[in-house]
Write a structure and sequence with these properties.
It is built from 5 helices and no strands. By secondary structure, it is an all-alpha fold.
Length: 185
């Protein structure tokens, strides 16, 4: 009698362990569902910063030098459609990355994430205050596309855009580091 009672207790314990093991496997498989909301904000911010940085670095390292290598006349003509398409994408990514990074950093009380978000957001006023006058002049139909001013403006635009590349890459790097640090906590 005692042995059958002990055996039933062993079977019961094994069933509980099996149930716990299944629950743990389910939790491990669905770990993404367990991410805290502030971390989701930081993930979105990191993605936006990474996309922004990648696009900005591509423009600085590939597109703009290629544009200029085709001659000033063609570079000035190609600038307008490229600028209009890029401006919408880049502004959206910078604003989404800044807002979500700031919210996530604020909720987690993580100063590093907040700083990264503000660095990414800084490209917007930098663009509006520093780069926009050059953009407007390059888009002006009165600009002589063969003249020295056009060449000077294209060179200036390339240097100013490189600042955006550096800022966004720094923000992306900080956000990746913060996410890795949060994942290990």
């Amino acid at each position: 009698m005692l042995s059958s009672f002990l055996r039933s207790q062993e079977v019961y314990a094994a069933a509980l362990q099996s149930k716990a093991a299944k629950r743990n496997r389910w939790t491990a498989r669905n770990n993404l569902l367990c991410i805290e909301v502030p971390v989701v904000f930081l993930i979105v911010s990191t993605l936006a910063a990474g996309l922004f940085a990648g696009a900005a670095i591509y423009v600085s390292a590939v597109e703009h030098p290629a544009r200029v290598s085709c001659g000033t006349d063609l570079a000035v003509r190609e600038f307008a459609p490229s600028y209009k398409r890029g401006a919408i994408m880049q502004a959206s990514l910078a604003l989404v990355g800044c807002v979500t990074g700031f919210i996530g950093g604020w909720q987690l009380n993580d100063i590093g994430s907040i700083i990264a978000a503000l660095i990414l957001g800084a490209v917007v006023p930098f663009t509006l205050i520093v780069i926009l006058p050059t953009n407007k002049r390059l888009l002006d139909r009165a600009l002589d596309p063969h003249g020295a001013e056009a060449s000077h403006l294209l060179d200036r635009w390339g240097r100013l855009h490189a600042v955006r590349s550096v800022l966004s890459a720094a923000a992306f790097l900080i956000l990746v580091i913060r996410l890795l640090a949060l994942g290990g906590a």
